[in-house]
Prior knowledge:
alpha+beta
Amino acid sequence: MAISFDPATSQFHLQTSKASYVMQIVKSGYLAHLYWGKRIRKASLSRKLRFRGRAFSPNPLPNDRSFSLDTLPQEYPAYGNTDFRTPAYQVQLENGSTISDLRYHMHRIYKGKPTIKGLPATYVESEEEAETLEIVLEDRQTGLRAILLYTAYEEFGSITRSVRLENQGTERIKLLRALSMNVDFHDADYEWIQLSGAWARERSVVRSKLREGIQSVESRRGASSHQHHPFIALLREAATEDRGEVYGLSFVYSGNFLAQIEVDQFRTARVAMGINPFDFAWLLESGESFQTPEVVMVYSDQGLNGMSQTFHELYRARLARGAFRDCERPILINSWEATHFDFNEERIIHIAKTAAELGIELFVLDDGWFGHRDNDKSSLGDWIVDKRKLPNGLEGLAKQIHGMGLSFGIWIEPEMVSADSDLYRKHPDWCLHVPNRPRSEGRNQLVLDYARKEVCDYMIEAITYVLANAPISYVKWDMNRHMTEIGSPSLPPERQRETAHRYMLGLYRVMEEIISRFPQILFESCSGGGGRFDPGMLYYMPQAWTSDNTDAVSRLAIQYGTSFVYPVISMGAHVSAVPNRQVHRITSLDMRGHVAMSGNFGYELDVTKLSGKERAKIKEQVAFYKQIRRLVQFGTFYRILSPFEGNEAAWMFVSEDQTEAFVAYFRVLAEANPPLAFIRLKGLDPHKNYRIMDSGETYGGDELMYAGLNVPERSGDFVSVIWLLKANQIESTV
């Protein structure tokens, strides 16, 4: 069993293949946290909870001065009953008070994992894959219940948590804070990692030591955002890529979030994650409930790479869904950087024909095909083909492109509306806004109010019409503006602070409906690149545009940071023209190709304007990627050298049976009289011999991992080297 309960000790023990998680019911029904770490056979209370009186830590139980919630490691703490640390939840009652007191009421353990209605979440394909524990905590005075949901994925090595809050009392309860999880670590001797950045430089790896006080990352933008990311990791100070203890927390949600660590006076660390309480409230009428999104928790004693590989396996196989989950993804070319808004059918056909000759498999028509969209100032919301540009419509264009042997895809941005659009002129109240306040625009657009059912219904039907009337096999779903003036006229005053979360529920409903209607379409999410690259979106769309910045050097850091949580198969990575549009850097077509091959490969340039030599190189890259595509997209990923720590980067992919490997090395700037470089490979079978396909040289897997592989000398800036390794038919003797 993955989950057990010992009635003699009132102790819960959750086990995966890699970790144990232990809780105990103590003193009058409080739920205490005992242990999260490397898997143990049996939790025998070798490290029992110790109670002692502390100055200025009050006591909730009469005549027991040794017990205070201020010092108790808890699972789902409240504020106001002697715990002065940040709570996991907070309510406001009809009398204005904010005190609640949740105690253990009951629990149940069962096989499988329940779905979370209306929200993305990991799932099981068989009840045998996981077990779930529901612990019901109750405040008898108010009728508030918190159902803590824990699922242990035994083989996937992960634990998920969420909370359902129910009002079983007679009066209304307003939630002011409703986080999804809390863990009180018994010490604070950790460093922590966050993935922060900005548009065009997403998910930089930031590592720092825990300090007393509160440290956090959060979004208040209505999206998970480019700026911060719904993920943090705690790691012991000696932890590296391959060694040491790491605790990873990832939030399956696409809106405002908070990930917070509080180090208290006794140097313990409280870690919590969930919907950002900033500008949030949720009114529960009698009999109503509120479900928090899910947090995925991963423990690794094999460093950061061990943590990442656990996330990769779970998210690829039990978060992403649909027909494309287990399929190799097509090599595409996107029209945006080739044409922007300035195109007609003839130009598109010319680009597509050239792409087909190079072996590319999918042509994607980006922004500008609808309404009167000649620039970014109009037509969002008017999802009708512009016959000036495409006289034969999407259907006619797609049929011509299919005739070349290419699939066809389009770009859409269904969450936005232009002030200059027929939709906005007809329904000016359909955007997020506050009465009598100006409506701020971003990229000349406003955010549609997905908290309103009629808006969601309209968009479902509008996009359905487009997709049903042309042979479309791919959709890039973009979102290029964060929320301001967050309000909805569909909600009464006491529910206005529900708007941002109701928007997300509406968006998830729209996405679920559309992908269900068109299971044959591969959907890719985008938000100015990586501004909403999160697990919530991955549940609906199995890949994402990693960043609008396609510069090869910038992408080393962006793709490296993204790999902390997300499988490579989820990362769109394309070759663009030089000088690069974001940083104006000139890198070789080789380096651009090698970086992009380390993800879902494609192009963002006008192939009709390239030289014959450049086209030949692209044809060669496309053919090579088809050889390694399954290895890259489904292999085990290892980080070798970090671009955040020096002038080099390196990573590799190993097949499940360890018979193939693809290795990529990058050096950014040249150095006078440099040291001779070598890299130690990872993940190979030490008992196998591997042939380097270009040179024909053969080395033992043990030698490649322990002694290393020489990097050929190259001159100049922006250098890359790749190796394809295949195990010999006859293995070396042991």
